[in-house]
Amino acid sequence: MKKQNHDKLKREFQGFYRVLILTCTIVAIFAAVLVYFLVDPNLSAFGNDGPDAEIVTVPVEEDDFDKIENGIHVRTGFVEAPGMMETVQNCTNCHSAKLVIQNRMNKERWKATIRWMQETQNLWDLGKNEDIIIDYLVTNYPPKKKGRREILTDIEWYELKD
Amino acid sequence: MQRRKFIGRAALASLAGIIGADIVYGSKMAENYVPLALQDPDPFKLFNKDKEMVVLNDKPWNMEAQAHLLDDKVTPNKYIFVRNNGLIPEEIDVKNWTLTIDGESVKQKKTYTLEELKSKFKHHTYQLTLECGGNGRSEFDPPAKGNQWTVGAVYCASWTGVRLRDVLEDVGIKDDAVYFGYHAADIHLSRDPGKEPISRGAPMAKAMQDETLLAFKMNGEDIPLAHGYPLRVIAGGWPASVSGKWLQRISIRNIVHDGTKMTGTAYRVPCKPVAPGEKVADEDMCIIESMPVKSLITYPKSGATIPEGKKLTVRGHAWAGELEVAKMEYSIDFGSTWKPCKLEKPANRLAWQHFSAQVEFPQQGYYEVWARATDSNGFSQPMLLPGWNPKGYLNNACHRIAVKVA
To answer: Which UniProt keywords apply (chain A) (predicted)?
Structure first.
């Protein structure tokens, strides 16, 4: 009985021991895999260049929200110069920057346009930014003299066939 | 065993949790989602427009044609300019769409469903010229404020609808009626629901014309969304802003309609001529009614090179607001001499008219072909810019194309 019990206990202990070792090994492997995924979540070390690999590039673009390329604010098209961000922040909420860039006015007429937008279009008080914005606009988008009729420019010549 | 299985499953689940969540979300993002800042809807696809159309503004949407795109006799949608003062309505519930006629000068307010309008009144189809009041604004000096249209904010489409007059007669209009004004479903740029982007109109005489329609079809199909689906007033020959899109209500007024862009300097020119750049008080500005005589060379595209001795076919369209074009001429010597073009009668009143000419050049060199229309009252297009005005309206100066004979 005693020996039998002892053998039985030994077998059970050996069994338990094997389970324990196996469990520890599995846990260790999972831990290693988990750590790896934390460091390299898209498995780039395995040359995984499928569509999943594109994920990580997305947040990077958000950092470039106000990216400047060749002196142009990509998102709006405004010329990079002092006062640009004030203009972006106050003048592109309701309408596109394209409407601003198309228009060439002097200080007085920009001021009148801002007043008109404040009176009729829900534009807020620009405070000290008003002068900054107007200076930016008249400096970077000055009126161009056109006279009573301009010559034809930018003609794309082509051979007419019929 | 049970415990081991549990650990294994839990680990797998958390593993899936870690990679799974990132990858599933990530791949969805890459495929279907572009961060807001990068959203750039393709306006050509959005509005079924040709790639050669020129975008002037993307909020609100404003887009114009180039002269050579307008060669068709009846302009197809893909070449029709887009002019918006506000944001295009986001939801159109066509089944429950109604038109209400109200105002000081109706005998009683009345509301029609779209179906009632279509079934109760006779349908009419007309080709009608619509030109933006600011077409040609880009040429004014000093520059005028607004979208800098060149030549392409004009077209002539075929409109089908019921006569505004027939509907007004059904409603009953008082003798003191002066003006009609429209109200529509578009959204103010500031998204203030208390503000209308635009609410214009015309005197009752224009409302009562045969060709003034409540239209539900353009070129035989439902009106495209950008052009006023499902219902639009069409008042040919007047600034296109009189032809209100996404129409919901018409007010018959006992005063000149005072809606948004009827007052101040909008769609108005100085009542008396002013010097370029002169300040004009609001009370000295008068509402634009009929558009002036004008023409456009639509073939060939500017920049054609032809061999010496070859005749050049030139063609295009001419229009004159409420009037008819009586004469069409061209010049290849900057206005020293003018020769006649062949000019067709309009398909109906207020439709643009087609002209053509066979042009001969005396020798090799650089030429410009200038086109000049004259209306039935004897008024012609100027070769220089017409009278300067603060908002840059009504530029009807002659159109010209460059040609080289080699």
So the answer is: Membrane, Transmembrane, Transmembrane helix
Size (chain B), residues: 406
Inform me whether the pLDDT recorded for B284 exceeds 70: yes
B217: helix, coil or strand?
strand
Question: B158 vs chain A: nearest CA distance in angstroms?
Answer: 29
% of chain B surpassing 70 pLDDT: 90
Question: How far apart are the CA of B397 and the nearest CA of chain A, in angstroms?
Answer: 9
Homologous superfamily of B45-287? Oxidoreductase, molybdopterin-binding domain (3.90.420.10)
- Residues from chain B contacting residue A37 (CB–CB below 8 Å): 15, 18-19
Question: Could you tell me the pTM of the whole model?
Answer: 0.80
Q: Please report the ipTM that was assigned to this predicted complex.
A: 0.84
Domain ranges of chain A: 2-54, 68-140
d(CA A123, CA B210): 42
Whether the predicted pLDDT of B15 surpasses 70:
no
**In DSSP terms, which residues pair with B319 in a beta bridge?**
B294
Q: What is the pLDDT of residue B340?
A: 98
B294-405, what's its fold?
A: Immunoglobulin-like (2.60.40)
Q: Looking at residue A4, what is its pLDDT?
A: 61
Chain A contact present for B392, CB below 8 A: no
* Residue numbers of chain A with a pLDDT score lower than 50: 1, 47-61
Site of tokens 């005396």: B362
- CATH for A68-140 (1.10.760.10, 3.40.50.1580, 1.10.8.60, 1.10.10.10): 1.10.760.10
- Alpha-carbon gap, residue B237 to B209, rounded angstroms: 12
How crowded is the C-beta side of B152, counted as CA atoms within 13 Å? 25
Overall average pLDDT of the B298-306 stretch: 98
CATH 2.60.40.650 domain residues, chain B: 294-405
Q: What tens digit of pLDDT does each residue of B172-220 get?
A: 999 999 999 999 999 999 999 999 999 999 999 999 999 999 999 999 9
Instruction: Name the helix (H) or strand (E) containing B201.
Output: strand B201-203
Residue-wise over A134-153: b if at least 16 C-beta within 10 A, else e? bbbbbebbeeeeeeeeeeee
Helix (H, G, I), strand (E, B) or coil at B222: strand
Please indicate whether, in this complex, the C-beta atoms of A55 and B385 are within 8 angstroms of each other. no
- A58/B26 Cβ within 8 A: yes
For chain A, give the secondary structure using H, E and C: CHHHHHHHHHHHHHHHHHHHHHHHHHHHHHHHHHHHHHHCCCCHHHCCCCHHHHCCHHHHHHHCCCCEECCEECCCCCECCCCHHHHHHHHCCCCCHHHHHHCCCCHHHHHHHHHHHHHHCCCCCCCCHHHHHHHHHHHHCCCCCCCCCCCCCCCCCEECCC
Chain A partners within 8 Å of B23 (Cβ): 42, 52, 55
B147 with B236: CB under 8 angstroms? no
